[in-house]
């Protein structure tokens, strides 16, 4: 049974439970505090970024059901900041307290095969894909697709991990070994013009709002830069929003959903293909913290708390650049730049590939 | 010896100690976290708003020197969110760790007589005032000023407490009893057009920046509403900034200083009189959270941490309205209003006169 319309919004003073204590949990905590809501962070690492700005903290494994039970009993609603929360944990919590977005979104987002089947089943365009369990599967799919492809593990891939480029004639056993011989999918590599993402927030009443679509640049599998506005034409933006909306509705989604897409360039017959979804606030939406009155973090909290959604309008054009690893060592120079807003996550060691912070640069809206 | 130029900025991961755990401490904590800085809140109340968003908390009296010592040793710099921190406590802390703004600003701001003498000693205009220790003092001053006056306790007045209106012919003993027979000052009541405040942030290197001057409306001694821009002409704004600058420089001030002024209206020979100063972030600057890329809270943290100051520009016109007592019960309707940003402080009981939150409304800059 859908919850829509059944419950009152959580009043100020209520507690939002957040699974995961990384930078997204940290920024969610601050957004909740702005609204007079408390957060209880559940994380499997003892010194995580979100602990510094939350009212309560639990260090525990995501499979420790006893600890999860106590956590669930201490909060009014549960949300999460990463999509690899075990579905069993989410289902267990959902027996005690509402979990938003629901476990179904996790289930879909955790498995690239399920995700692609789900999305294409809605009539939403995705790149050609095939299930790959064996070297034979891989060889057959490579033959079928022709040209460059990407072999991806079905589960636990993020920031480009668990992926390898493959082409017809590839040594299939070696390619599978490169992704740990895990259950995988093969995707045809599209020659897209750029990557974009749709950030939709959907309320408990089914109302949805869209942030302007950022254009994203990745390198080494990690998002480096997002800019708004993107180069999409208005009708292409409208198509992108409709695609994301269809996915959010089919998941009976509550909160911010990020839908990453490939844009094939102006004049393409099929201009947009969904790459993947993230059932959470998203790195490509960090510019909303400075360019919009209501950020993606606040709107996610509003949605999961059953509050009216805030505006998704922006007052400025924006560029978001991730500070990865040693990039953050330039904090002093970046803090001195006019028009640059700096956000640091409180992480201690600047390991390679680790997201340490980001900057937003604002420009007048033309 | 001045600290100017002597020290490096505190790197991300450093800890800012904050004396006081109310809403200003809460918003300072969040601003610090945005920059990757931790906060340790010291407060004499166990369930205070800032505890929910800080990395460390100490509950202790402001005269418990043992606890203050431990607090000072756990942080890299100390600041405060209210001006009634005992000067002895600030001086004690300053022997262990930098205290910014320095104890001198507290000393001046805590005593209305010292404050008025200090400011007028700088050649900055204040309303006529007189020291009042006895009924005789009061009678003499009333005679001298003529017309309506205000009798104010020298210490511990805020939000209109410890004040009473008096006029020639008043029963002086009764008037003094009404302010608790405490050492007091008499101020001549000016017939001003409106109240404004200058929010200046001054860095450790003496550089200063000014937010646009808000026009403030009080009722019952409590700030209700601030709007930017004010009705001051450009040259009057410049005069107001110069007055605030003189005060900040004379205090060798570091951080955000609020200087409340009376504006006598267009064409006045002496258009501006300083009413009082607050050596901290200020309620009349809460609009900066939504109308400026860098809020007063972030700039205060930048200053006390020795960072480069951020921009004080605003991208929008703004109106800030305090939610006092039961006003905050309208949170649901306010959260649904387009163009309205809501901030709630996590306080449990909506007592009369208690600041529970505020809203900012944004309007296009003309």
Furnish the topology, listing elements before pairings.
Two copies of one chain form a homodimer.
Chain A: E1 15-19, H1 23-34, E2 38-43, E3 56-59, H2 65-73, E4 77-80, H3 87-94, H4 103-110, H5 112-121, E5 129-132, H6 135-145, E6 149-153, E7 163-166, H7 172-178, E8 184-188, E9 194-202, E10 208-210, E11 215-219, E12 222-228, H8 234-250, E13 255-263, E14 272-278, H9 288-291, H10 296-304, E15 316-324, H11 331-336, E16 340-344, E17 355-364
Helix pairs in contact in A: 1-10, 2-3, 3-4, 4-5, 6-7
Structure, briefly:
Two copies of one chain form a homodimer. Chain A has 366 residues and is of the alpha+beta class.
Describe the fold and architecture.
The structure is a homodimer of 366-residue chains. Chain A is an alpha+beta fold. Chain A has three domains: 15-110, Rossmann fold (3-Layer(aba) Sandwich), CATH 3.40.50.20; 128-188, ATP-grasp fold, A domain (Dna Ligase, domain 1); 194-364, ATP-grasp fold, B domain (D-amino Acid Aminotransferase, Chain A, domain 1, 2-Layer Sandwich). Helices cover 28% and strands 28% of the residues of chain A. The first copy, chain A, has eleven helices and 17 strands. In chain A, strands 9, 10, 11, 12, 13, 14, 15, 16 and 17 form a nine-stranded antiparallel sheet that branches. Chain A has a four-stranded parallel sheet with strand order 3-2-1-4, with helices on both faces. A four-stranded antiparallel sheet of chain A has the order 5-8-6-7, with helices on both faces. In chain A, strand 11 and strand 12 form a beta hairpin. In chain A, helix 2 crosses helix 3 (87-94) and helix 4 (103-110) crosses helix 5. Chain A starts with 14 loop residues before the first strand and ends with a strand. Mean pLDDT of chain A is 95; it is low at 1-5. The A-B interface holds A 9, 11-13, 26, 29-30, 33-39, 51-55, 290, 293-294, 302, 307-308, 310-311, 315-316, 328, 331-332, 335-336, 338-339, 341-346, 348, 357, 362 and B 9, 11-13, 26, 29-30, 33-39, 51-55, 290, 293-294, 302, 307-308, 310-311, 315-316, 328, 331-332, 335-336, 338-339, 341-346, 348, 357, 362.
């Amino acid at each position: 049974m859908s919850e829509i319309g059944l419950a009152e919004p959580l009043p100020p003073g209520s507690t939002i439970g957040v699974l995961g204590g990384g930078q997204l949990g940290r920024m969610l905590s601050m957004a909740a505090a702005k609204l007079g809501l408390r957060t209880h962070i559940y994380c499997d690492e003892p010194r995580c970024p979100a602990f510094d700005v939350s009212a309560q903290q639990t260090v525990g494994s995501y499979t420790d059901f006893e600890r999860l039970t106590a956590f669930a009993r201490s909060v009014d609603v549960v949300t999460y900041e990463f999509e690899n929360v075990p579905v069993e944990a989410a289902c267990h919590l959902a027996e005690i307290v509402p979990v938003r977005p629901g476990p179904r979104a996790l289930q879909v987002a955790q498995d690239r095969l399920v995700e692609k089947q789900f999305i294409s089943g809605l009539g939403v365009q995705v790149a050609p894909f095939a299930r790959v369990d064996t070297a034979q599967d891989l060889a057959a799919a490579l033959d079928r697709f022709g040209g460059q492809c990407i072999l991806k593990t079905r589960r636990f891939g993020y920031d480009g991990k668990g992926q390898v480029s493959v082409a017809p004639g590839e040594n299939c056993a070696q390619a599978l070994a490169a992704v740990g011989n895990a259950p995988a999918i093969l995707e045809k590599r599209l020659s897209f013009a750029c990557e974009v993402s749709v950030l939709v927030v959907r309320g408990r009443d089914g109302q949805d709002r869209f942030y302007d679509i950022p254009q994203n640049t990745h390198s080494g599998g990690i998002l480096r830069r997002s800019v708004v506005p993107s180069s999409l034409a208005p009708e292409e933006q409208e198509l992108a929003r409709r695609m994301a909306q269809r996915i959010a509705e089919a998941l009976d989604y509550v909160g911010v959903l990020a839908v990453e897409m490939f844009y094939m360039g102006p004049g393409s017959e099929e201009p947009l293909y969904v790459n993947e979804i993230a059932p959470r606030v998203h790195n490509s939406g960090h510019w909303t913290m400075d360019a919009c009155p209501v950020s993606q973090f606040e709107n996610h909290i509003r949605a999961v708390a059953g509050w009216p959604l805030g505006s998704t309008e922006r007052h400025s054009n924006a560029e978001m650049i991730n500070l990865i690893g040693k990039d953050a060592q330039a904090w002093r120079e970046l803090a001195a730049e006019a028009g640059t807003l700096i956000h640091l996550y409180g992480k201690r060691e600047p390991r390679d590939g680790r997201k340490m912070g980001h900057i937003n640069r604002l420009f007048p809206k033309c």
